[in-house]
Amino acid sequence: LQYAKRTNNKRYSYDTQKQDNGTWEDGQSRPSSERGPQLAAFYLEGVACIRGREDAEISSALEIIRVVCPTLQHLRITGPPVHHPDSSADHVLRHFADIRSIKLHYAVPGSMFSALALLPRLEVLDVELQSLIRPMEYLFPRNAFSALQELTVRGKSPMDLERFLQGFTSNRISSIKLWIRSCYERSIMGCVEALSLLPCAKTLTKLNLEVYIFGRYDGDQSQDDMLSLNVLLQPLLSIHRLEEVILDLGEVEVIDTDLCSIAAAWPLLRSLKLYSWPFELNHDQRKISSPSNPLRRPSLLHVVDFASKMSSLESLGVEAAAVSLNELTKIEELVTNVAPQTNLVEFNCLISEEDRLKATLSRLFPKAALGLSAEQREAIRRARAAQDFNSIKAQRFPLPNNVPRV
User: Fold this and answer.
1) What is the H or E stretch that residue 213 is in?
2) What is the mean pLDDT of the chain?
C-alpha cells in the first residue's frame, strides 16, 4: 500500500498470495515510483490477518488507502472471515467520499454498515455478512445508501440475511443478488419474502438468486417434500418490472406451470437463466436426488412455447427434461402455427444437439444461437476432464500428491 503514491494509472490489483509487484489495468507491472494519488481502483486479493486482529489490520490498511489514494472510486478486498469484529474500521470508511463501488469479500461485521450506509456516492455494494451466534440487528438511517443501485449480499446465516433485508430502506436499487444457503425451507423463504417487501422491489429490474437447500438425505425427504420453484416464486411474482433474472437453484423442483407464472408476472423479461442442480454433497453423504428419484424439469415443449410468447426475450437458459419423439413432433407442430420470435439471440436449453430438433427451433428462433443447457455443458466438461485424467494415468505419469483422484 505504501507503493501506491505516485501514478497517473487508474487501477491497481495486488494478490497477497503471489506477493508480486501488482498488476495495472493494462496487465503490466509497474515499479513503485509510478504509483500514486490518481489511483481510482484498488483491489487487494486474499488478504490474511493475524487471528484476533483482523479488524485492526483491515482498518490500518483502509487508512493507508484513504491517505495515499484520496480520489479512490472502487475498492475490493478479499480474505478469510473476521473472527473478532469490532468497529475500528468504521470511522475510516466514512472518509471515502468519492467511492462508487465497494466489494468486501471477507465477513463484514454489522457495525461497519452504519459507515457504508452514509457514503454519498456509493452505487455498487458487494458484501459478505458476518455470521454471529446472536442475530445482528441492522438498523439503517432513513437516508441510508442514498445513491446505491446494485446490491450483492452473501451470508452463511439466512437469519442474518433476512434481518439485513428487513432493515434495508433504500428505494433506488435496480439490481440485487443474494446467496442463500440453508437446510431449512422456512429460512430460505424468510429471505425471499423479505426481498419482496423491500422499498425498491416495485422498481427492481435485475434479480440474481443463488439458493441451495442442503443437509438432507435419501429417506429423510420424499419427492413431494422437496422445495419447489412454485413456492419460491410466490413472493417474487409481485415484482413486475424485472428484465434480467438468474435463478441458480440447488435441489429445487421446476415444472411447466412455473414458466406460465413467470410469463404472467414478468412481461418485460429480456433474459432468464433458470438452473436447478442436483446438489453435490461431500463424499460421505448422499444426495436427495438420484437416478431413481431425479429432479423434475419443465418439458422442452413448454420451454419453447414460453420463449415464443415472450416477445421481448433475448436470452434464455433453462434446464429442460429429455425430449421424446412424440414431444419433438409437437414442437414441430407448434413451430408451424406461431410466428417466429426474432428478438431471441441465445437459447441454451438443449439436452442434446440433435439435427432435427435444431432445424425445427431455427425456424422459430431464426436469430438465436442454439446450445446445450448449463448442466449438459458441465457434464461434458467433467467427462472430458475424467477422460484426460485417465489418459494421463494410463501413461504412468507421476501425479502430484495434492491432485485428487477421479
Assistant:
1) strand 206-213
2) 79
